[in-house]
Write a structure and sequence with these properties.
Helices cover 41% and strands 20% of the residues. By secondary structure, it is of the alpha/beta class. A 5-stranded mixed β-sheet has the order 3-2-1-4-5. The radius of gyration is 19 Å and the shape is globular. The protein starts with a strand and ends with a helix. It binds adenosine-5'-diphosphate (ADP). Adenosine-5'-diphosphate binds next to α3.
């Protein structure tokens, strides 16, 4: 069985192709056209595996751009995909904290790997990857450099809740000669506080898995663990867990169809 899961995010489009037991991963910036971004990832995965569309049994799309994916046989929400992907990788997982480019969410999952509750912030850029991208630009850095530069011992609390005001606050702190590493640690704390407020409201239980592109930043993981006072695991493929879940759900759909005929 050959299936593809494609997660069309606001920043990056991620794809996972499953060919029996083998998994192949591919990611690229979504760009201005989610439709084209998804097409490129699907074509790229097929080319890498030397297979064609006729040999692919199902394509499942998820993510904010899923409705624009013309190649998809079916679509499914990111919440269901994250739950499916994480329960496959970590059967003991009970809570997922996911921070992407333009939203953050906390998902609780049952022993059976089903979604039991969730909370989401998609109204405000604060607490998302977008917030970190804006702040990195204000600091003259790339978002990938933040983790190495942070200095948690010198954490400077960021008071502004809004991305625009927080940017002004950063510029003002830099002008006052405050430690750059301390400011970055404060930004990490600010993102962590936003998402852990949701996690507490949902009574997050262990094991807690942290996913999304923002999970690449070990400073955010550290700050979340500090806020929750509990260990948090980041999967190696943290940005691909939604696409993986979509591919696994595609395979399950096919099995169900097969069994019912
Ligand atoms: P979306 O699904 O909305 O496209 P992702 O889950 O792919 O979002 O995450 C994108 C975010 O991940 C970016 O906004 C950025 O903040 C963060 N990110 C991506 N790559 C890195 C990196 N190498 N280091 C730190 N953060 C990163």
């Amino acid at each position: 069985m050959i299936v593809i899961g494609v997660d069309i995010g606001s920043v990056a489009t991620k794809g996972v192709l499953i060919n029996d037991d083998q998994r192949y991963y591919l990611m690229a910036p979504t760009g201005w056209s989610p439709r084209q971004g998804a097409r490129d990832i699907i074509k790229g995965l097929m080319a890498n595996c030397s297979i064609n569309r006729a040999e692919t049994d199902m394509i499942m799309a998820t993510g904010y751009g899923r409705v624009s994916c013309e190649e998809a046989d079916k679509t499914v929400t990111e919440i269901s995909c994250q739950a499916r992907g994480i329960s496959a990788l970590y059967p003991a997982a009970r809570t997922i904290i996911d921070i992407g480019g333009q939203d953050s969410k906390v998902i609780k999952i049952s022993k059976a790997g089903k979604v039991s509750d969730f909370a989401m912030n998609d109204k405000c850029a604060a607490g998302t990857g977008r917030f970190l991208q804006v702040m990195a630009t204000a600091l003259g850095m790339d978002v990938s450099e933040l983790e190495e530069e942070e200095d948690p011992e010198q954490t400077i609390g960021i008071n502004s809740m809004c991305t625009v005001f927080a940017e002004t606050e950063i510029i003002s702190l830099l002008a006052k000669g405050k430690s750059k590493g301390g400011i970055i640690a404060g930004l990490h704390q600010s993102v962590a506080r936003r998402v852990t407020t949701m996690a507490r409201r949902l009574k997050a239980e262990q094991d807690i898995i942290f996913t999304g592109g923002v999970a690449i930043n070990s400073g955010i993981k550290r700050a979340i663990m500090e806020e929750l006072q509990t260990p948090v695991t980041v999967p190696e493929e943290c940005q691909f867990t939604g696409a993986l879940g979509a591919a696994l759900l595609a395979a399950e759909n096919l099995m169900k169809d097969k069994n019912s005929t």
